[in-house]
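Batch 3, record 17
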Amino acid sequence: MSVSPELLLTVARELSGLSLDPAHLEPVVPQLSAQLAGLAALDELDLETVEPAIVLRTDLEGQP
Amino acid sequence: VSTAELTRLSIAEAAERLRRRALSPVELTEAYLARIQADDPDVRAFITVLADAARADAKTAEAEMSRGQYRGPLHGIPVGLKDIIQTRGVRTTCGSRILATWVPDTDATVASRLARAGAILLGKLNCHEFAYGPTGVNAHHGTPRNPWGADRMPGGSSSGSGVAVAAGLCAGALGTDTGGSVRIPASLCGIVGLKTTYGRVSRAGVVPLAWSLDTIGPMTRTVADAGLMLGAIAGPDPADPGSAGVGVPDYTADLGAGIRGLRIGLARSVFFEHLQADVRVAVEAAARALEGLGAALQECALPRMRHAGAALFAIISAEAMAYHEPLLAKHAAAYGPDVRSRLLAGQFVLATQYLKAQRARRVIAAEVDQALTAVDALLLPTTPVPAPRCGDHEVTLDGVTQDVRAWLTRCTRPFNLTGHPVLSLPCGLTREGLPVGLSLVGRRFDEATLLRIGQAYERVSPLRGQVPPLA
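Prediction for the assembled complex:
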């Protein structure tokens, strides 16, 4: 997977309206690249029937 | 009694003298303030020292005690708070330049609970900027000096808490733990740190790093002291939506019950790979010592645990960036480079990746829950390496080179993902004289069993009673 500071700059600006200094994004690239493989490997877990841990629990009063 | 002796007393020891009125809270507070005045300019554990307020609170405590109004074991005990815990009328910098002059108008729940218990607040403690880093290195307020080695990292993010307790600049402190931030400085500074069950201690009024991972816990010189502090701060709080409606036991009740018959699991295939040799020796010796005290050791398999780091990355990155986005939009240049780049990485975690991580979280947590049906606690090293040197960016173990932050959090971050409580306590010294931390992982809301095991071990620990050379 190819990630560049320019791509991140465009994504931040166009999708989030965040104007960033390109120099601040340079160290982000290796961090992201290092983590993407790990995130892809989460597919090795059988998650088909698993709901996210953020699903709200209702308490005894039925309130979320 | 000398200042040095007073500032090495455990909370329990000091409390007993205070209760018997063999020691005055004013005398104890003055001893700590003298140590801070003499040593903190070099140690840099405190960002803000509250000398006048502490003296006034100590006099109030003394007056209450003289009237027979003894509030309990924290009454008159001088403590410190990590500087992301809000304090009314006292600046709360979060270890940052951005909030260097921010003065909150409310106390965090934990601050008010400690005050209600009669603790004396000495000041606000240094930390990794916005609690987002395990090294404790802080370019804005200076890096706290590890009392076991001046050129060594204190560990973070609760670096000032770890250093102040280890160096005898406060009797106990609170830290926060989102990926290891109580346990890592506890391990690197040779003290006790308790990462509490998610929901056990209110987060209300604590500046968040990641809402679904943040916990608050005590950092102390003894296991019993951690139980005393936890007893004061634990319990439900309607101001925290993550607070659990679970009652608070007396954490000191079973401390001396021993551990005969308890079962302790070792997940060697996950947590005992790539350890610095002296860390392995110390942790294996601790396991044998627990066996000698009557515990039964058994192997545990946690095959899904190897995915915990990736899942935690997605969650902490996305949640931290969601909180910081407005601040970053205005003050990006005022963040330290390491924290800024970690925050910005969260801008590019996709919502689908975040949710995949939250689904993985559920199965990894279930695996730990299942393991803890067969054993009473899991045992592992807190950090696979002792305190690295302050300038180290990478560490090589068994031929594997990684970012020092990845090594430091390898054994801690999984349990923020799963929410389980973990007690870290010192279990030995390396040949270079650096402390090694041992972690005990327990069932949710069963901090009491961890404290019981920790107390039993502490009595035979090779570090028992040792004072750091720079303290």
